[in-house]
Specification:
By secondary structure, this protein is an alpha/beta fold. The chain has one domain: P-loop containing nucleotide triphosphate hydrolases (Rossmann fold), CATH 3.40.50.300. It is 34% helix and 25% strand. It has an eight-stranded mixed β-sheet with strand order 6-7-8-3-9-10-12-11, with helices on both faces. α5 crosses α7. The radius of gyration is 20 Å and the shape is globular. The structure holds adenosine-5'-diphosphate and magnesium ion. Adenosine-5'-diphosphate binds next to β1, β2 and α1.
Length: 326
Amino acid sequence: MDMAEILKVQDLKTYFKLQDGLVKAVDGVTFSVKEGEVLGLVGESGSGKSMTCRSILRLVPEPGKIVNGKIFYNEMDILDWPESRLVQYRGKEVSMILQEPMTALNPVWTIGEQMMETIVQHEGVSQSEARNQSIELLRKVGIPVPERRISEYPHQFSGGMRQRAMIAIALSCRPKVLLADEPTTALDVTIQDQIIKLVQDLQAETGASVVWVTHDLGVVAQLCDRVAVMYAGRIVEMADVIELFENSRHPYTLGLMESIPTGELKGKKLVPIQGNPPDLLNLPAGCSFAPRCRYVMDACRTADPQLRPVKPGHFSACIRFEEIWS
Ligand SMILES: Nc1ncnc2c1ncn2[C@@H]1O[C@H](COP(=O)(O)OP(=O)(O)O)[C@@H](O)[C@H]1O
Ligand SMILES: [Mg+2]
């Protein structure tokens, strides 16, 4: 039997109306996440990954607006909900680990106060029970001597420890869906591996679904069941992880795969894809990837490429995939 789809995003458009023009940060994105599944959301910086996640929480920063689409959580469109219903939803049902822990943690509160606040608010337990749960969570994410560190402030934690504390806070209410927005990008490879392991353990334990945002396909290979590749606000390819690595049908995905550092280069500099990342205020006509694509043809410069099935469960938006991989 198919697992239920806990989260369904349909034709989501999140735009920024700026003085210089309209930025289509998320431009017609459709995907779903099954219960217990880990979905990777990959793409270079600026491709719309964070705004997709923030839209799912209805936390798009000004002047950004969700201008189209539906976001179903357990078959309920959260875009219909009043703000009051979102308090329970954020944190308890869908929770997010942000890219920059320093902006997400409150500098004037101790780590313990921030964790306990969330737990008391969502679980309705006593202060002392919330404190015990917080200490246990900090222990689980690998913070040494948590009964002491719980009384420290964010600035007393190292970058890696802050990120672990963020993860502990995000997991403290056992969310059904965890949105992890590049949670390991700023960390060194060893800590990155530990955090990936930690999320895997906790996910196995609670059966939560995870959307793992990254620009690093190496991490995707380690962690994800399925992958959606984003470019200039759109999903350009989507497939099961093995299918994507063995049978990609999009030139952009191929470029990303070639940029994975392997062997002794792991964790070192990425080899960038040729050409410049797209300027969303000045997208070229046709396929947004065309100016960088080694397979570009005239038709690509006028097409409006839509995701099409390659085979069941595998979709590509390249208008030439049949020819290129014939
Ligand atoms: N606060 C903002 N004001 C204006 N434009 C923004 C803002 N945040 C994001 N954008 C636009 O949205 C695009 C997608 O951003 P984002 O989702 O953060 O990308 P990613 O997470 O993939 O790096 C960016 O390229 C930028 O053009
Ligand atoms: Mg981002």
